[in-house]
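Researcher: Re-running this chain for the archive, since the previous output was lost when a drive failed. Same request as before.
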Amino acid sequence: MYPSRHTIFALLLLGSSLLGCSSVGSNLPPLDQGPVAEASYKLGPGDQLRVTVFGADDLSGEFPVSDTGTAVLPLIGDVKAAGLTPRELEAAIRTKLAGGYLKDPKVSIQIVNFRPIYVLGEVTKPGDHPYVPGMTVRSAIALAGGFTPRAQQSFVVVTRQNREFKASVSSTLRPDDVVQVSERFF
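Model: Regenerated structure tokens:
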């Protein structure tokens, strides 16, 4: 009446082997779907900025945020940019310019190019790709040449600020995100 030891052992072996076949990342929390808002976006190395100082064209221009997290501007030199929002950087530049260079400077900052996103794993062309606002996992994978035949296409793993999340292809990305496309097993 009761199953034999061999039957129970076979069922346990089959169950444990199926658990081992679960996809990498399938147990991760879902990715936050909120798009990046420029007002809350924190600048970082790799961002390209357009700084406009009204009435002082020689102080305006495009400047990268360096690996050290600073932007080097004419007249005032290094200004810490990494970790600041564009509005906070405007205020920092305004303060430095008002400190003996200009009277009541008006400063505006635009992000010309964001930090790239990275697509790795089972895609045709893994590597870094330019980020554009509103970018989804699907468009990032398209930039990376599409899925390989072995790719797990039902979800990907996105690493954001050193935390991993499960994401669908319609999920919205942010600058510096790393998209990992895993290999499917069956």
